[in-house]
């Protein structure tokens, strides 16, 4: 019936709502055993894409398949894919357990599965409470429990960190990582906030205005950011010389009298300074770049978005025909990103 792979393949997917191009020619693959973050600002087309994948919206063109099949041809879809979309409603007067039992019956799984999934999402002690009194975070967990009822091979979650407190986000991160990695399942998670999902995703698809801006391993995006170390030495020019003598060339002074060093670690810099007899009063790693790159990649969506300066180090886009805005912004010759990891490539043509 289907290929059983648990793979999600989105291929040249587009959706138009009247004059609005909500999704344009989107392509990506989500492999089993990994968590993919589907990122973009509000209105970027994330929910529309997920709804097409789940058979709730008909694509204008292109396809979205799970196990090689469109959702409508999955047979018993709840056994293949569990999903949580925006604004999932619960009957407010129903207890968590009864809510789950209604859904369990609908998809043909035994009642006891309701208690199993409540335990999985940490709501065991709230089983007899009415969903109407749940906090947003508890509702997110109950929605996830509902998605897990059919013990699906694939999980699709739309903005699951919304409403979760930091502890809830940590819990979700551990849960999804083990669901994907230890159990070999496929997880696709959307978010408009990179920093909320950064810790839990392996691969990332970044979209803006319905168009792919980046697609590839998160690690590659991270590596391409040329993080810097800001050093405060007693003698800046002596440190610059010592670093250059040791083959470290990405060195530049900062307006506040420090030395910015790219492509080197705190330890390497400290060792070189010590050997050269230069006192160092402080070192600071500059980590803001991933977030900044996310804004750079998506800022075209809003005119007047915060002006994050282009650093000239975006990764090479991994899709055909990058949008013009992107090409123009970086046409000054960005350094090549690391080679694309084989096996994470774009969709098979
Ligand atoms: N049913 C609809 N009818 C008309 N426009 C829609 C509909 N659903 C979404 N859109 C529009 O499509 C674009 C993408 O929306 P959406 O997929 O919800 O983005 P996201 O989930 O990334 O915030 C937005 O401009 C939105 O207004
Ligand atoms: Mg959305």
Automatic annotation (TrEMBL):
In terms of InterPro entries, this protein maps to: AAA+_ATPase, ABC_transporter-like_ATP-bd, ABC_transporter-like_CS, P-loop_NTPase
- Is ATP-binding tagged as a keyword? yes
Give the start-end ranges of region Disordered. Answer: 305-349
SUPFAM superfamilies recorded: P-loop containing nucleoside triphosphate hydrolases (SSF52540)
Kindly give the Pfam families that the UniProt entry links to this protein.
ABC_tran
Q: Provide this UniProt record's keywords sorted from A to Z.
A: ATP-binding, Nucleotide-binding, Transport
Q: Which SMART domains match?
A: AAA
Q: Where is the ABC transporter domain?
A: 8-234
Q: Where is the composition biased (Low complexity)?
A: 318-342
Any one GO MF term held by the record is: ATP binding
Signal peptide extent: none
The keyword Transport is annotated on this UniProt entry: yes
- According to its UniProt record, which protein family does this protein belong to? Belongs to the ABC transporter superfamily.
Please report the name of this protein according to its UniProt entry: ABC transporter ATP-binding protein
Q: Which organism is this protein's natural source?
A: Amycolatopsis nalaikhensis
